[in-house]
Amino acid sequence: MLIAAVALALAPTIGVITGQGCTVSQLQAGLCTYSTQEQVTISGSETLQGSGPQASDDLPRSKSGNGRSPAEPTAPRDCGPLNRCETYTVATVPDLTLADIASFRPTTPTLTGEPAGFGILGMPTNLLATAAEQHIPGTILDWDVTVRFVSTAYIFDHGDGTTTRTTTGGTSWTTLGQAQFTPTATSHTYRQRGTYRVSVTVEYQASVDFGNGHWRPVPGVITAHATGYQVRVVEVRTALVDRTCTQDPTGPGC
Questions:
Q1: N or C, which terminus of the chain has less Cβ within 10 Å?
Q2: 131 and 217 share a domain?
Q3: Distance CA 206, CA 103 (A)
Q4: Bridge partner list, 119
């Protein structure tokens, strides 16, 4: 497409304006030329667009005059010490849900009690659950990650229709420096004799490290369940005897 170039730098505007945007005097002096196209370009100014077709590579200009649309994104550039620029893309880590870490599971907690395997009717039985913090490596959405599980709650099912929710898995009487059958945060008192199946559900808060040392929490909780611990609750009666069971195995309570 032929574009008529108009050189108007410091040239006075005199005479009659022709149909092509030039004066007769400028045409005679050789200061202005034109063609039969409808677009006229004036040097040092902007393009005057007629009704004819526009060039396919004509880009809208931003206020900075860099030839880009204001809405057109510009990738960051790193020129380095030798001023050799390279365009790069900054990848951001994704926001994760519980579904994204479904393949990562904390281990089953342990469940015991004291006295081991039995309890005394009307007296506290101390239940103990252990769920250590866990770090599990793996891959999520093509990212090498480490998933961390931290226990936040313990729900004890005593097997008699009652439950207890605590923030601890419990501590032994010895560690607490307490005598046996002292109430604790995880103890339970049974009101009837029998054998009870006890279980515990541990709730974990999950978080993910994408390799930068920063833990990103995942909304919601992951649970792990432990069963199989039985408590036989017996009744204890006190009697005054003249000899111990070792001395008289057939004596009262022996």
A1: N
A2: yes
A3: 13
A4: 233
Paired tokens of 236: 């204890």
Domain containing residue 23: 1-50
For the entire predicted model, the pTM comes to 0.60
- C-beta separation of 162 from 119 below 8 A: no
Radius of gyration, CA atoms only, the chain? 43
**Which tokens is 139 given?**
């891959």
Backbone angles phi, psi at 204, to 5 degrees: -115, 145
Q: Where are the beta strands (DSSP E) in the chain?
A: 4-6, 40-42, 47-48, 77-78, 86-87, 110-114, 118-120, 124-130, 134-140, 143-157, 163-166, 187-189, 194-209, 215-217, 222-234
Encoded amino acid at 61, one letter: R
Lookup: tokens for 180: 């046996």
Q: Are 111 and 217 in contact (CB under 8 A)?
A: no
| 125 and 9 together in one domain | no
Burial of 209 (0-12, 13-18, 19+ CB in 10 A): middle
- Between CA 121 and CA 250 the distance in angstroms is 24
Helix/strand/coil for 32: strand
Domain-embedded: residue 69: no
Strands 215-217 and 194-209: antiparallel
Instruction: Report yes or no on 55 lying in a domain.
Output: no
Instruction: Supply φ then ψ for residue 28, to 5 degrees.
Output: -70, -35
pLDDT tens digits along 39-60: 433 344 333 344 444 433 433 3
Q: In what order do the strands lie in the sheet with 110-114?
A: 110-114, 124-130, 187-189
